Amino acid sequence: MPDFNRLEPVNPQIFHMDWELTLKCNLDCGYCGSHDNRKKHPSLKECLETVDFLLEYADINFIDSALNYKKVIFNLFGGEAIYHPNFIEILEYIRKEYEAKYKDNWVLHLGLITNAIATTKVWDRSIELIDFFTVSYHAENSDKQEEQFRRNVLALHQTGKGYHVAVLMNAPLFHKNLSFIEFCKENGIKYLPRQLDHWGWSTRKYNYTAEQVQWFDGEYKRKSKKPLPGIVIEKPKIKFRDKVKGLIKKVVSYKVNLTNVGRACCGGETLCTNGNFNDTVFFVKDNRFKDWHCSINRFFVFVKQDDQSIRHNKDCRMRFDGKVGPMGYLKDARKILDKMREEITTGTRPVMICKKKMCFCGLCAPKAKTLDTYNTMMTRYFKRV
User: Fold this and answer.
1) Which CATH architecture describes the domain 6-209+293-378?
2) DSSP letter at 283?
3) What digits encode the pLDDT tens for the residues 362-383?
4) Rounded to an integer, what distance in angstroms lies between the CA atom of residue 180 and that of residue 363?
5) What is the DSSP letter of 192?
6) What is the phi/psi pair of residue 172, to 5°?
7) How far apart are CA 188 and CA 185, in angstroms?
8) How many CB atoms lie within 10 A of CB 310?
């Protein structure tokens, strides 16, 4: 367990609405579990209905929020959202509905999580409509896609729009990642190296060598104000089934899955481990928060368009009953919205208690070991908890 009893971002937390618009993607990275090119794009009609739900969800969520925290980042992603044939129409609809119904209630920042592989026409129009870009660099691309990616990122940088580039550090192609990082440095492009979270036998090729782990260690220490002890590489226990596989034993012994060590915030947030914001970390060495009180439902909502599920968070997926899964489906949208409105207006909205072994997303959601500490911490954000 962590050696602290609370964790929250240094920068003011913003409400994240995350929408997995489509599962189709124009890349096919081996470590990715977020795409399926066999699936069709969802129809424009059902997409616009989801937009209506999400905008109203945010409006209700802010009923008891302090004025300074009524801000939304509405993130679209996939698969690859920009790959959807009606992508531009969807963006225009979001802007129109927000301006007509909600602009006096809260502030909207429209975000796009994208691999930035798009035609110049679509990319330029996206830049006009999007406020902030999280661009992901994937080394498993073709030469043509690499050229297109660099051109689009450079064009985005030159507009002055908000963005950061997440460099997915692919162990077998580490050299290619480092080459792209040099491109970023040469052109003044903001970038964030990201470790790959992955599980299972099939993805062990993405485990990191000791030298690559040392490189990560230097990056995390550079971004943290609190002195870090360094990433400790422990020799893994080899099970019998591993021993009989011969070669795999050698791979496991000399490579590291950083998922089991700790992680940094997905968005690169610096995190605070006390209420004075003078003890900050960039890398959380022990990201286990089982039985902690977490505000994930206060600062996140996620819709997976493909199966129509609504979750508090894409990767966390915790529910109030202590189970992991959707809180409902889009067919129940009205019921979910009415229930949330009643809980907030009557002061009976429950607190999420984490039951997961590790935190893979939602690290930046303010959280505390005890309910008293949680309630004290949350007075910063809400009129009442």
Assistant:
1) Alpha-Beta Barrel (3.20)
2) E
3) 888 999 999 999 999 888 888 7
4) 27
5) E
6) -65, -25
7) 5
8) 21
Residue type, 76: L
Residue with token string 């925290």: 69
Tokens of 111: 């975000």
Which residues does 156 contact at the CB level (< 8 Å), separation at least 6? 116, 123, 127, 133, 135, 163
Q: pLDDT tens digit string along 99-149?
A: 999 999 999 999 999 999 999 999 999 999 999 999 999 999 999 999 999
- pLDDT tens column, 10-64: 887 889 999 999 999 999 888 887 788 888 999 999 999 999 999 999 999 999 9
Identify the pLDDT of residue 358: 84
Q: Which residues, 6 or more positions from 1, have their beta carbon under 8 angstroms from its beta carbon?
A: 286, 288, 290
Give the number of other Cβ atoms within 10 Å of residue 207's Cβ: 21
- For residue 194, the SS3 value is strand
Minimal CA–CA distance to 145: which of 114, 124, 118?
A: 118
